[in-house]
């Protein structure tokens, strides 16, 4: 039986490298995968899955209006569907993925953030937490201490940002994984140092 997986983690928890690794594991067995990512993520160009350690490959960029059941059912001999930036999917798209799993019997592995920079669930993550068969956390450490990072701190000009638009695409120059304590009380000296490093 195929299953719908949701692997979530804070920024820089290795989601993209994991997805590339899973794709590779399928492909060495001569099994084809379909790679999807959100058209909203333009950090390395639209339709790219890129990891911080330098590996990247192209993926089909999905828009909010795309019907994923229709898109996936048109593909021939797909062993699995791998989706990066899954938090940006709509609830309707997550429901389409449940049909891919249940009706087409194709496993779907989704990877994304759980909560946004203001600690609200993203729409795709909320639906995945409800509908996924298997949910796994990918761990990473707080940027300020050794505890597990459970939140994403957005920052700008060396200062934490606690309100704004939910979707603001950015990488290490705009977000850092943090524990709850340091989300509320980031080390401003370390944050300023981090900001100046990123400007160099
Ligand atoms: Zn911390």
Automatic annotation (TrEMBL):
InterPro entries for this protein: P-loop_NTPase, Thymidine_kinase, Thymidine_kinase_CS
Kindly give the PROSITE patterns that the UniProt entry links to this protein.
TK_CELLULAR_TYPE
This entry's Enzyme Commission designation comes to 2.7.1.21
Query: A single GO molecular function, which one?
Result: thymidine kinase activity
Superkingdom per UniProt: Bacteria
Q: What keywords are assigned to this protein?
A: ATP-binding, Cytoplasm, DNA synthesis, Kinase, Metal-binding, Nucleotide-binding, Transferase, Zinc
Cite the active-site annotation: 85
Question: Where found in the cell?
Answer: Cytoplasm
Recorded catalytic reaction(s): these are: thymidine + ATP = dTMP + ADP + H(+)
Locate the residues binding Zn(2+). 142, 145, 179, 182
List, alphabetically, the Pfam families matched: TK (PF00265)
Q: Where do the annotations place ATP binding?
A: 9-16, 84-87
User: What SUPFAM superfamilies is this protein classified in?
Assistant: Glucocorticoid receptor-like (DNA-binding domain) (SSF57716), P-loop containing nucleoside triphosphate hydrolases (SSF52540)
Q: Which family does it belong to?
A: Belongs to the thymidine kinase family.
Query: What is its quaternary makeup?
Result: Homotetramer.
The record, for NCBIfam families, names: PRK04296.1-4, PRK04296.1-5
Protein's name according to its UniProt entry: Thymidine kinase
The species this protein belongs to is Weissella sagaensis
